[in-house]
């Protein structure tokens, strides 16, 4: 599991360093060309809600892959991280408005991870032992991992979307 986590981190770092090349790929340019000039490229509320929905859909895809497929963690790391970066690069390339509105759009879209973090903290705060003497240490480790995931995903999405 540690090797998979490190592979995901290395893959993310490579994709972040190569995001300029990633943004010039034909498919990204084609999608962004088709979306430019529409309200999604100038209205930060619509773009932010669409980004929020995209983040939620990608999280749901990762959840389904992780829990319902054999070797799901490996497939999830190899599939969902590039898909997330691809989505965030598209939203960054499509945006035609002011930088101030782009920050608002990115904040609205990345608030999914804040809501996820709030849910995790609420779940842990209301968690009760299944039987007397049950140790909740593993639940605490899950909270730490989910916190790292949520903060990391939010920071990477903001970094990718707000690049110049």
By DSSP, the count of extended strands is 0
Strand content: under 5%
- First-to-last CA distance: 35 Å
What's the Cα radius of gyration? 18 Å
Shape: globular
> Which sequence of SSEs, written as H and E, runs from N to C?
HHHHHHH
Largest sheet: none
The proportion of residues forming helix, as a percent range, comes to over 70%
Structural class: mainly alpha
Q: How many domains comprise the coordinates?
A: 1
Give the uncertain stretches in residue-range form. none
Number of helices, counting only DSSP H or I runs of 4 residues or more: 7
Mean pLDDT, to the nearest integer, reads 79
Q: How would you sum up this structure, described in words?
A:
The protein has 164 residues and is an all-alpha fold. It has one domain (2-161). The chain is built from 7 helices and no strands. Helix 4 (44-68) runs parallel beside helix 6 and helix 6 runs antiparallel to helix 7 (137-161). The radius of gyration is 18 Å and the shape is globular. The relative contact order is 0.14. The mean pLDDT is 79. Keywords: Membrane, Transmembrane, Transmembrane helix. The chain crosses the membrane at residues 6-23, 44-67, 73-91, 103-125, 137-162.
């Amino acid at each position: 599991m540690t090797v998979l986590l490190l592979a995901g981190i290395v893959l993310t770092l490579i994709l972040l360093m190569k995001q300029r090349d990633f943004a010039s790929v034909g498919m990204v340019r084609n999608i962004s060309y088709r979306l430019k000039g529409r309200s999604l490229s100038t209205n930060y509320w619509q773009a932010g809600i669409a980004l929020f929905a995209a983040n939620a859909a990608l999280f749901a895809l990762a959840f389904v892959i992780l829990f319902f497929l054999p070797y799901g963690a490996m497939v999830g790391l190899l599939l969902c991280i590039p898909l997330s970066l691809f989505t965030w690069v598209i939203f960054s390339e499509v945006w035609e408005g002011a930088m101030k509105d782009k920050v608002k759009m990115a904040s609205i879209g990345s608030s999914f991870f804040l809501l996820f973090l709030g849910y995790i903290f609420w779940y842990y705060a209301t968690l009760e032992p299944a039987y007397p003497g049950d140790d909740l240490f593993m639940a605490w480790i899950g909270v730490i991992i989910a916190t790292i995931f949520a903060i990391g995903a939010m920071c990477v999405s903001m970094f990718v979307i707000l690049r110049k």
